[in-house]
Amino acid sequence: MARSLKKGPFVDGHLQKKVTAASASGDKRIIRTWSRRSMITPDMIALTFAVHNGHKFIPVYCTENMVGHKLGEFSPTRTFHGHAGDRKGEVKAAAAPAAAAAPAAPAAAAKP
User: What is the pTM (predicted TM-score) of this model?
Assistant: First the structure.
């Protein structure tokens, strides 16, 4: 559900202080944060955040297209290693074209 427009974007207070200090001083150092729920605002553009995903910090460089999204959207918490059933299908799929190609060649030679 979206947040009410009259409330404005939510940014944690401690993170807003760090952003204000970094933009005022022109500091480009990475800002570490656990606040995945904070929304990216226009004053965060061109800053890099290290967003915690529960295991490690993922660097997120903020651009204009990210304004309005949350920091957590750019730091995935799960690693996808593929489906277990697809591994068996890869072996069968690799063998099937080789078997299908062998009989096709003599059949083409017999027609002319």
Answer: 0.70
